[in-house]
Amino acid sequence: MKTKYLLTIPALMLVLSGCDSEVSSIAPSVDSTEAVAASTQATSESSTAAAESTSEAAESENSATEASSEVSSTEASSEATSTETSSDAASVSSEYSSGSGYQNNPKERKEVKIDDDSAALYDSFLEGTAKATYSSKGDKCEYLNFSSVLDDGKNYTLKEMLSNIAAGEIPDSPIACNNISAKYLDLGLDGKIEMLILPEFEGEFQPSIVVKNVGGSLKVCFVADSWSRCTTMIGFNGSVSSTGSGGATSHGDDEGYLDASGEYHFWHRCWEELYGERDNDNKLSFRLDGEDPEYNIDGADLMYVVRYDLDESKNDKDAFYMIYLTDSDYNDIEDDPSNPNNPYDAARDILVKEKGLKVVSEKEAADLLAKARKKIGFSDEVYKFGE
């Protein structure tokens, strides 16, 4: 099983301040005293390798990877990876998240063809003269509280937006904005180019801001943040993935889609927990979600329980689960119906009959994810771009 990982860590408050900074390879030269940024000095780009690893676990917690200010690599689990053994598992992985191909990375200015009106507006916004309308509907930040310091429907220059963030967090602990870079997207692959702004701050959290030309006016249609244990990745086609870790044995991912109009659609959430201990004489002992009672299953050492939510509100009754059992070396154990001592049967009895969870096969999971993806308008053509 291949997954990509997400989610929360203990909240760390951060101040973002002082964004009289450099813009890398994006706009014509301007007076730096009047603009948010004026240099064409290039900023180093973060890796865009979105981790698509098989079910994995670590005995010690993964050290934090550096937060990316653009489409960036996710944190990898620190120990071992189970072997993928079935085409169904590959099917789930394929349907799980798009944007793994290099072609789906956000583009440089020279790689896209922007209409003259949009180009002028984007350059003016980067130079600090044009304003964009902030929409709280597209604000998916976890810790950078744009929505607490910006008014929904109000127009802001880029410098005003970032300065408000700085003032709204911890004013006594300013952190400098060293650079502002921009990349370009084609949300929904309709040929109309959007701009992805990536401010670089000294500190934990980094925003990604998507700006779109809507009828001759600029709109901030999406904003999200990244930090050392979680990365938001925005693909050229509009795919959005927030991936990370809640610890050595907890990983997950939020997936969504920015359509051609710039509207964000939630697709699904995935969360994976590892249970059991290695080298436990082929006996699995676990407390589901850390709660009593303790269960014991013969024939496996480790169990991965993967929860999927198709409802952003995490409605328990709509969630479904997959389970994977491995030995102490993370080798997959076959789910063999002909085996009278099949450990999967014992695991399903616990999760389904005792806990009331909806446990599905890999094929069923892939079908459910595909149906949900198409329901939000994330078509096969757009989804598979870059693969």
Sum this structure up briefly.
The protein has helices at 87-96, 116-127, 146-149, 158-168, 343-354, 362-375, 380-383, and strands at residues 2-3, 22-24, 53-54, 56-57, 80-81, 132-134, 155-156, 177-185, 194-201, 206-214, 217-226, 230-234, 239-247, 250-258, 264-276, 283-286, 295-298, 302-309, 320-326. It is of the alpha+beta class and 387 residues long. A 7-stranded mixed sheet has the order 2-8-9-10-11-6-7. Strands 12-13-14-15-18-19 form a 6-stranded antiparallel sheet, sandwiched between helices. Strands 1-3 form a two-stranded antiparallel ribbon.
Question: What can you tell me about this protein's structure?
Answer:
With 387 residues, the chain is an alpha+beta fold. It is 17% helix and 29% strand. The protein is built from seven helices and 19 strands. The chain has helices at 87-96, 116-127, 146-149, 158-168, 343-354, 362-375, 380-383; strands at 2-3, 22-24, 53-54, 56-57, 80-81, 132-134, 155-156, 177-185, 194-201, 206-214, 217-226, 230-234, 239-247, 250-258, 264-276, 283-286, 295-298, 302-309, 320-326. The strands form five sheets. The protein has a seven-stranded mixed beta sheet. A six-stranded antiparallel beta sheet has the order 12-13-14-15-18-19, sandwiched between helices. A hairpin with an 8-residue loop joins strand 8 (177-185) and strand 9. The radius of gyration is 22 Å and the shape is elongated. The protein starts with a strand and ends with a helix. The model is unreliable at 1-87 (pLDDT under 50).
